[in-house]
Amino acid sequence: MVGNEDSTAVVLNRLRRAHGQLAGVISMIEEGRDCKDVVTQLAAVSRALDKAGFKIVAAGLRECLTGDTQENTQPMTEAELEKLFLSLA
């Protein structure tokens, strides 16, 4: 993954949170909970995943601007970054 240890930790925390929220949504559906409650929690999962994705893209942008990439890897091109960003839109 692109980014330093701090940004990686942030992404992992967000993904773990989303994982827990998704497990909660699955349980809610299995329990027959109200549609409004399920959709509200599902939206929270979606936002958590979006935030993790945006953090990854931001780290990639930072690498491209600074030229600070991992060994034996090429920095992403502008087109590749744009494609990544748009995949989250």
Description:
- The chain has 89 residues and is mainly α.
- Helix content is 76%, strand content 0%.
- The chain has helices spanning 5-30, 35-66, 78-87.
- Helix 1 (5-30) runs antiparallel to helix 2 and helix 2 (35-66) runs antiparallel to helix 3.
- The longest helix is centred in the middle third of the chain and has 32 residues, at 35-66.
- The chain is elongated and about 50 Å long.
- It starts with a helix and ends with a helix.
Portion in beta strands = under 5%
Largest sheet: none
Helix content: over 70%
Number of domains: 1
Question: What is the CATH architecture assignment?
Answer: Up-down Bundle
Count of alpha/pi helices: 3
Radius of gyration: 16 Å
User: What is the CATH topology descriptor?
Assistant: Methane Monooxygenase Hydroxylase, Chain G, domain 1
What's the end-to-end separation, in Å? 20 Å
CATH class division? Mainly Alpha
What general form does the structure show? elongated
Question: Mean pLDDT, as a whole number?
Answer: 83
Derived from helix and strand composition plus strand pairing, the structural class reads: mainly alpha
Uncertain segments:
none
What is the H level of CATH, i.e. the homologous superfamily? Metal-sensitive repressor, helix protomer
Kindly state the number of beta strands: 0
Order of helices and strands: HHH
